[in-house]
Amino acid sequence: MKKLLLVMAFVTLSLVLAACGSSEESASSDGSKEITIGYFPNINHVAGMVAEEKKLYAETLPDGTKVNYKYFPGGAAFMTAIETGEIEGGLVGPGPAMNHFISGAKINIVAAGSTGGTVIMARKGANIEAPKGLKDKTFISPHVGCTHDVQFETMMKEEFGITSERIDGSMKHVTGKPATYHSMFVAGNVDAATVPEPWASVIEAKGSGEVLVDTADVAYGETLPAAVFVTSQDLVKNNPDMVQSIVDAHKKATEFIKDNPEEAKTIAIDKIKDITDQKLSKSVIDNAWERIDFTYEVNGDVLQDFANSSYELEFLKEKPDLEGLVDTSFVE
């Protein structure tokens, strides 16, 4: 009986110790500190690629900290990883970040990653000459209610009075990874796409589609952060020094992109090849680069306006209040 009680006490103590460490960076098997950063293989997330390639987190985090990286196909998986502590922070679209915050996720946006980069493409041969021609057509986006979806559907509703079947409209909506949109166009499976770069430029280069609406004319096209840097409120509260170190590395990466665009493009080409197994040409990256501005400054008012649009499109059940989501103290 005593032996059983001792075992139970040991297990209980182990669980308590594990819980105590959950709000900070994890420890690797050799006892050193360890964190994980996440991002997507999109041009909007080049700061993540540069920070990884140039080992910029090693310059700002305490000596001995091991930095891992995890790549995500979409915002839902990324946000789950943040909420469960699988990753400490990283880049994601503002749509998933806002949606999860409104649903109760304890997260903070502590920086931006970029603006721009969303393009509406029409499949060659679909006979779509203008956005109003999308009535009764099928469009694809990465996920339902993602950043690019909201930008597209906001534009269509406000400017042309056309909505998706989800809200009793005429446009059919499917989802899929942006890297597959060219093949979807070739197969004739969809008529249009709301596309993050560099995949719009891939479609242009391969000739399977044409630009229907360029970045500047999509809703929130040049003002909305296309990527934001997110971490948990728990980390902000309990380990602000670590958050500051992470944001400092992200800022270094952003400045590197501005000061060394050609090297940053090469890094992006190589990382996207590693992650997606697709080799993008320099001309594709050059074209995509023109549609994006890399910045770590984040405007909370624009995010609130965007969230209101998401509500009006019925992606959100309640009118959103983003008070407490954005914390700009780490970039000031």
From TrEMBL:
Keywords: Cell inner membrane, Cell membrane, Membrane, Signal, Transport. Pfam families: NMT1_2. Residues 1-18 form the signal peptide. GO terms for molecular function: ATPase-coupled transmembrane transporter activity. SUPFAM superfamilies: Periplasmic binding protein-like II. It is found in: Cell inner membrane; Periplasm. GO terms for cellular component: periplasmic space; plasma membrane. InterPro entries: ABC_SsuA_sub-bd, NrtA/CpmA_ABC-bd_dom. CDD domains: PBP2_NrtA_CpmA_like. Belongs to the bacterial solute-binding protein SsuA/TauA family. This is ABC transporter substrate-binding protein.
